Amino acid sequence: MHSFRAIPFAVLSFLTTVYGQTFTDCNPLNSTCPPNQALGVANYTIDFTQNTMSDKVWNVTARPINYGDDGAEFTIAEKGQSPTVQSNFFLFFGQVEIIMKPASGQGIVSSMVLQSQDLDEVDWEFIGGNNSYVETNFFSKGNQTDYGNAIWYPIDAPQDSFHNYTLDWSPEKLDWIVNGNIIRTLTYKDAANGLKFPQTPCDVRLGIWAGGDPSQPQGTIDWAGGKTDYDKAPFTMAVKSVRVSDASRGTQYVYGDNTGSYQSIKVLNDTKPLHLDGNNSPSSSQTMSQKWSGLPQTTKYIIIGVVCGVVGLAVIIFGFCCFRQRRAGKHEKLLEDAKYEKMQGEVMAHRMDMNRMRSEHKMMGASSVEHFSPMSPMMGNAGAQYPFPSQASPMIPGRSPNPNGYSNGYAYGGGRGYQKY
Ligand SMILES: *[C@@H]1O[C@H](CO)[C@@H](O)[C@H](O)[C@H]1NC(C)=O
Ligand SMILES: *[C@@H]1O[C@H](CO)[C@@H](O)[C@H](O)[C@H]1NC(C)=O
Ligand SMILES: *[C@@H]1O[C@H](CO)[C@@H](O)[C@H](O)[C@H]1NC(C)=O
Ligand SMILES: *[C@@H]1O[C@H](CO)[C@@H](O)[C@H](O)[C@H]1NC(C)=O
Ligand SMILES: *[C@@H]1O[C@H](CO)[C@@H](O)[C@H](O)[C@H]1NC(C)=O
Ligand SMILES: *[C@@H]1O[C@H](CO)[C@@H](O)[C@H](O)[C@H]1NC(C)=O
Ligand SMILES: *[C@@H]1O[C@H](CO)[C@@H](O)[C@H](O)[C@H]1NC(C)=O
């Protein structure tokens, strides 16, 4: 975003209020400022496909940021949006690795920035209309007339897949690394013998903005690759993960004088360290609703469709089972009534022993009542199985509607009685 630093300051201050990445609350070069909160650890990693940003560690300076399968999604859905975050921690040399995919779209700028309180700065920038280059840039002590540091490098389709953009920063040199390949090295000596070398504790900033918004000056629109066409929105920059290693391992960094040199920075180690999130704390996992809101609209429709389909199908199957079972029940009852009557007839016809007949008759009558009366519509099928606790409750969904199950049930209770004949 700094290629347009040549443009008038009024324009710049407008941009900075939009984007917030080129200003400082307190400049240690001419003020006494509060200390910088140090990251202070060798390996802070946050995977945004699993975790969200805790506001102890990240300051969302422009919303919204959503979370989905691609991690943290910075989306411009309409004019006026420019989702941006900055870390509450500072690193004083070290490494910053960002696995990300910039947004496509003419006039859309995706960027990753290291910035210090005295406005040293290191940039990665992507122009949405250009899917084959990344811009690398740096600034020193907020010198806004020093705009000749940008270099563009060809890289392989950054918008199509996640790449690993790493900065390796020491007092001697700064490397810009893409997927393990160093594309640019700035040495301390080459940067005006250190005078222009970024060397003060920096925070980490990630954001997307519309450099091609029609309200922007022509120079900015041209740099951003042309006017933004909001009809093509949403434009999404996705950050999968961030890993930061702070080489200085302090708890706070303090400017010892107004030179802005790295030798002037005091590394304090006697204050409370920052509470980290990500892998350091499970408390910031993506919630279900964050995961849901992070899903693409089409995926949501598919999920809603599938859920409705499954529920609908369950209702149909349940209804069908009720119908089948009630019919099966009626059928059984008719059969058993017929059997009963047939037996009654046989009994009479064969003139069996009257005493024995009387007792058997009572028994069959009892089992008929026991097993058929629960088949009323009010009881559903639950009653039919009630005497057989070893069997699955019919109220458990997905239970097989196999009518044999019921036949066996009746055979167990009722049939045994008949087998005696
Ligand atoms: C000093 O402070 C003023 C006002 O706070 C600011 O405008 C100016 O840019 C600062 N100077 C430097 C060298 O940062
Ligand atoms: C940093 O931490 C992450 C997550 O805990 C781990 O996967 C990775 O290997 C670590 N890297 C280093 C260099 O220790
Ligand atoms: C977040 O950033 C804004 C803008 O730079 C600043 O005013 C605010 O104090 C920051 N919040 C925290 C918690 O650091
Ligand atoms: C992408 O940017 C590079 C460097 O500025 C330029 O040479 C190239 O023509 C651009 N490609 C497109 C498609 O704009
Ligand atoms: C800013 O950079 C320009 C270009 O290198 C240089 O001429 C100028 O002296 C610098 N300004 C300051 C205040 O260092
Ligand atoms: C990203 O690149 C850096 C520098 O080459 C490397 O150390 C790191 O392991 C890479 N990270 C991943 C996740 O591949
Ligand atoms: C600060 O304390 C930590 C933990 O005790 C230690 O690892 C680190 O080296 C110390 N840093 C400095 C600058 O003393």
UniProtKB/TrEMBL annotation:
Residues 42-239 form the GH16 domain. Its main location: membrane. Keywords: Cell wall, Cell wall biogenesis/degradation, Glycoprotein, Glycosidase, Glycosyltransferase, Hydrolase, Membrane, Secreted, Signal, Transferase, Transmembrane, Transmembrane helix. SUPFAM superfamilies: Concanavalin A-like lectins/glucanases. InterPro entries: Beta-glucanase-like, ConA-like_dom_sf, Glycosyl_Hydrlase_16. The keyword Transferase applies. CDD domains: GH16_fungal_CRH1_transglycosylase. It is found in: Membrane; Secreted, Cell wall. Residues 1-20 form the signal peptide. The chain crosses the membrane at residues 301-323. Its EC number is 3.2.1.14. GO terms for cellular component: fungal-type cell wall; membrane. One of its GO terms (biological process) is fungal-type cell wall organization. GO terms for molecular function: endochitinase activity; glycosyltransferase activity. It catalyses: Random endo-hydrolysis of N-acetyl-beta-D-glucosaminide (1->4)-beta-linkages in chitin and chitodextrins. The keyword Calcium does not apply. Belongs to the glycosyl hydrolase 16 family. CRH1 subfamily. Dual chitinase/transglycosylase that plays a role in cell wall architecture. Chitinase and transglycosylase activities are coupled. Required for the polysaccharide cross-linking at the septa and the cell wall. More specifically, transfers chitin to 1,6-beta-glucan in the cell wall. This is chitinase. It comes from Cladophialophora chaetospira.
